[in-house]
Amino acid sequence: MKHIGLSFGVLLILVGCSFKTSLEPITDQYTTPNNIATIETISPEMFIYQHHYDNMDRGNHDYIEKPLVIEPLVDGYKISRGDVIFFHTTNEEKDISRIVALPGEEIKIIEGQVYINDKKLDTFYGFAHRLGLEKDRYFEMMDDRNQYNNNGMREYFDTNMDQIKLASDEYYFIDDDWMRGKMGVIKEQDIAGFVLGYIE
Q1: Domain boundaries, the chain
Q2: Which fold has domain 26-199?
Q3: 133: burial class by Cβ within 10 Å (0-12, 13-18, 19+)?
Q4: What's the pTM value of the predicted model, to 2 decimals?
Q5: What distance in Å separates the CA atoms of residue 94 and residue 148, rounded to the nearest whole number?
Q6: Which of 64, 107, 115, 175 sits at 20 to 30 Å (Cα–Cα) from 126?
Q7: How far apart are CA 95 and CA 79, in angstroms?
Q8: Which residues pair with 48 in a beta bridge?
Q9: How far is CA 119 from CA 27, 66, 183, in A?
Q10: Contacts with 71 (C-beta within 8 Å, 6 or more apart), sequence order
Q11: Is the separation of the CB atoms in 121 and 152 below 8 Å?
Q12: Per-residue pLDDT tens for 94-150?
């Protein structure tokens, strides 16, 4: 009888630990906001790209202030969550965006918050913002000005997206400023390179 009670107790602890783990958010310890590296030396295979759109602007003219250094994607290079990628659109235009979900993962958005495999993506690029401002700070600032579409912006900050599952060769990207940018699935073969930072 003691063994049954002990086994049941261990089972409860294991279930509790498993439940706790399943609720823990996904974090990104390596990617930081508003901290774009400055590259002093580039190798022959790297190239310079001047981005002219504010889809990645977090309030400091991010990624459009100076020319960017792009490192081409080579076989065997691991694409990570948080990477800013360089790619060609279906219209053969050049663009950049940020990887938020990886192959095989499930992604959804609930009221402006990204969830990966039902876990909250707890990082600066995991939720809707406007020019780097979170929802509460944005409305606090704009209410003082009293000249904006309040209802429209509340809909924006409460963006929802049904869950989708990525294939083994698919990633999900979201521009840093959702309002000025886009989000979607991209095949690994369509990723041309990575944004390393600004050219010195």
Answers
A1: 26-199
A2: Umud Fragment, subunit A (2.10.109)
A3: middle
A4: 0.85
A5: 31
A6: 64
A7: 17
A8: 69
A9: 10, 35, 19
A10: 45, 46, 193, 194, 196
A11: no
A12: 999 999 999 999 999 999 999 999 999 999 999 999 988 999 999 988 887 777 788
Chain length of the chain: 200
Q: Give the span between the Cα atoms of 122 and 159, in whole angstroms.
A: 16
Question: CB burial class (10 A; 0-12, 13-18, 19+) of residue 51?
Answer: buried
Side chain identity at residue 186, one-letter code: I
Contacts of 171 (CB under 8 A, 6+ apart): 79, 99, 101, 102, 103, 185, 186, 187, 188, 191
Residue 59, CA distances (Å) to 30, 92, 154 in order:
21, 28, 19
Asked if 173 and 190 touch (Cβ cutoff 8 Å), the reply is no
What are the angstrom distances between the C-alpha of 164 and each of 21, 103, 105, 117?
22, 11, 8, 10
Which tokens hold the place of 61? 């003219």
At what angle are helices 135-145 and 150-157 packed, to 10 degrees?
170
Nearest to 43 by CA among 84, 19, 15, 74: 74
Alpha helices in the chain (DSSP H): 2-23, 135-145, 150-157
